[in-house]
Description:
about 130 residues; mainly beta; Thiol Ester Dehydrase, Chain A
Amino acid sequence: xxxxxxxxVSMMPxxxxxxGTIFGGVLLAYIDQAGAxxxxxxxxxxxxxxxxxxxxxxxxxxxxxxxxxxAVTRIGRTSxxxxxxxxxxxxxxxxxxxxxxxxxxVYVNVDDSRRPVPIPEDKKVAVVLPAAR
Length: 133
């Protein structure tokens, strides 16, 4: 996984639920965006098919700076799977990143009509899978 996040966001009061923590759905939307960004080297247009094993480890609070790290873990004929790890740098206290959420997201490469199309073999090599590093 690259050290640079695909997305980095500061959480705001508009993102909170009634308990004062960030809505899980807000994090899911950013996870989806970060995963889609990771597909760019080999896919021009993708649609989200599913999110597997979304795990919320810790709450996220207003003011936290949240980083979404994305790494391609599998490339199929038309699909691409991305693992997204989410870390929060707390607004208060130590500035150490805390793993708050992670998920595996599956996308399908599509054409302009939103029909699945194969991922070109020459573009698959543009993505370095974690096991190949």
